[in-house]
Amino acid sequence: MRDHRIDARREAAGLGEPVREANALAEKLGLDPYPVNYWIVDYDEMNQLMAYGGFQHRYPHWRWGMQYDRSKKQSQFLGGRAYELVNNDDPSHAFLQESNALVDQKAVITHVEAHADFFKNNSWYRLFGGELDATAMLERHGDAIGRYMEDPDIDRGEVEAFIDAVLCLEDTIDQHRAFDTERSDEDDETPEDLRDRLDEMDISEDVRRQVFDEEWLDRLAEAEEAAARLDEPRKDVLAFLREHGKQYDADSGKAVEMEEWQRDVLDMLRAEAYYFAPQKMTKVMNEGWAAYWESMMMGEERFAGTDEFLSYADHQARVLGSPGLNPYKLGKELWEYVENTVNRREVADKLLRVRGITWRNLTDVVDFDTVQERLAPHPAIDGVTPERLDELAALGDDPRIDQAALDRAIATRDGDVDPDSDEAVDVDTYPWKVLTYEGLAERHFSLVKKQNRGFLRRIGQSELERLARYMFDDEKYDSVAEALADVDYAAGWDRMREIRASHNDVTFLDEFLTQEFVTDNHYFTYEFTHASNDYRVTSTDYEDVKKKLLLQFTNFGKPTVAVYDGNFANRNELLLGHQYNGISLDIGQAKDVLERIYQLWGRPVNLMTIVKELDDHDVEVARRRNREPTPTEVGKRIRYDGERFETYDLDPDLEDRITATDVDYDTKPDDWL
């Protein structure tokens, strides 16, 4: 039987150089990643890590086994392969499967370096806390929950059932606010109806009537109910349940305080929900960012060797070509579009400053073929080879050239440096080493790439007018050639890093998805139609595509539910509200979740929502006329008391509170606006 440790050491020995050079290239390209520790694992270990979300230790629970089984079957029967696995930590930890080919390992490594840059520099990841040691945190949680399960005084089944209940609500947090472990002010405490306290005191009816007037008790209850109303819905449902939740005690028939282990488990799982929230919020941005820079390093900078390129191209085609809403493909295409539009704006800005060129005549008087030729990188920068190093040296003290690396490359070529020494620079393998960030930006300027050759000439009059509107120095250059010599080749990359620092998927799509992008990349919406009983393309308008996408990313694509009252109807009942945005709840699933919430509240729970009702006659008429029927939206309140469900019509004032006048995509904290 083979020793896995020997295989892992052998594999690791061959990856030292790719790891080192990928990090150096990433930094040359302007990335600033966390340090990354790479681990070699076998097939079974990789499936276990994937089940655990990229970590080696998690709390005991059946969900991990289910995810492990799914991952294993996917690779066995559907041909799926584990290419990348990296976690958000400082340092980050990435896992490489020992059975993968070297070219696949290189693809993972370059992809991971970009992820580590995103983790370190995106503001949403800093909302979770200060110094990040996620691996240690999750291991502590796993050990603590494991001890509760092994405690003879605690029923293991109760712990598992409690975890199940909390996990149903793991996305009902306020992911747009910094994680706070402190409990809220006592003003948020739900007041207790004094009648309940009197019942517990076992006071006689005579004494009760003499001392406590019923009318006074009614007024007190009304006042307490008003005080308990939340001015604003509480988005962090888990925090509210942590503060006010109880458990139902069957023996006494009443709600009693949670056990200490229950509050501890709830705290731990809530912290984990906040830790994983930024990754869910930036899936498209993050995967697109990693796919973009991986493609740059592996393909355009030849990190994949000549004999490896076809294999790598197949690797990337499978990743970008997977069906459904593909975050790698959508993200990469949108990042490339941002880069192109910023670079186009940079070139247009320079052209509009040429004497005699205005926003009205630019597209008529400018020869775009000549512009493309002049934007092409310097031949020696575009094709770095040992034979052309002297051309780079002739450029002198040029900011595009890494002079120290160039000197070592020339000495290596001329035999003055041992090619196997640390001082050697082999530009056949690593041409980027002799260039700086500015040189690489010129070498990879997006508008001169073949796939983007028509992007510049497609600039519209409205965009030119916007650029010229506040332009004062509009006769800065005497010729187009002089203007183009001033183009900042790094403009696109610089802007991409700014966007990477502050946006999440919702704001990213909202700001940068345009009609031009939708048309160029062939995006469209489709819906189930009652007229034909199947799915049909319904729109190619960018506003419709944007709305469809944003609905899938707002609140991780899950329904947004908040706490509206912790003492509903003055009965200590919990009132939750589904913030309706045109998408109805799956009522069956909603009832399942209410059963879990009851375990965390210990008293009846209510859920407000809006349902769409269709009249059968209207559906039939619409089908005959090949159009869609118009549903009626009706507010409902679903109540669960621990035994049965009841459904009520929703009061109009409550319906108004959960009905959005428009889909709310504003996910930036107030202090960012």
TrEMBL record:
Transmembrane segments: none annotated. Pfam families: SpoVR, SpoVR_C. Signal peptide: none annotated. InterPro entries: Spore_V_R, SpoVR-like_C, SpoVR_N. Residues 20-349, 490-557 form the SpoVR protein-like N-terminal domain. Residues 559-610 form the SpoVR-like C-terminal domain. This is SpoVR family protein.
